[in-house]
Sequence to fold (250 residues):
Amino acid sequence: MKKLIYFSLGLALACTAPKSDQETFSGAQRDSLFQEEAAPKEEASSLNDLEGSFQEQGLVDIEKEIPGIQVDLKYSTEDNFFKQDVYGDLTRCYLQPVAAAMLAKAQKALQEEYPNLSLLVYDGVRPIRVQQILWDGLDKPDSLKPLYVSDPKIGGLHNFGVAVDLSILDLKTGKALDMGTPFDYFGYPAYPDRELQMLAEKKITKAQVANREILRKVMKGAGFTGIGSEWWHFNAFSRKEAGEKFALIQ
Fold:
């Protein structure tokens, strides 16, 4: 109920930066996506063979591309908003090559300034078939589901392999920096757009915001953009650019 209240307030008050997964395609892009969906397709490989499928679709393993980067795929565990492991045996994170190259730049910048820190990636590409599992399993009316997860009929930037969810790991302690909320927390304390308000209400601290600023600095310096409602989410491209440059990952 608290999550629903938060989102109802969010819709009423409107953040300065919209949640990227709610952006819209152009009419031509939307028609193209639905035509692709309607076309007969060869049966997709099983969830246990996601890596092979990703590689066939041109994605790269970020741990092979980025020295020292850390990965903890939250959707290969039940430690996520949906409390569901939807990636099965998958433990490695994949992205489009250009997004991985941008992430490598961010990792390098972080370690040049803070040698004891590393990016800690929670999610990268999310195939449409997994998006469908999340959509179908969410116990909400269809009208409210887009507040929590992108409609698989449209797809979000994770589904193109150009969005990444991440934090920062302290290599000395082995723990993620304190960002004020856990990953996948839905509420104003996780909103970059609400940080001043949350500081005033003592829901988050200056130290937690400072940790977020470190993450934002290296990610934005590498060409990523953040969103107003999730401190952990960054996009390599806009929704329009992604639709023009890449296919949805199956």
Summary: The two ends are 33 Å apart (CA to CA).
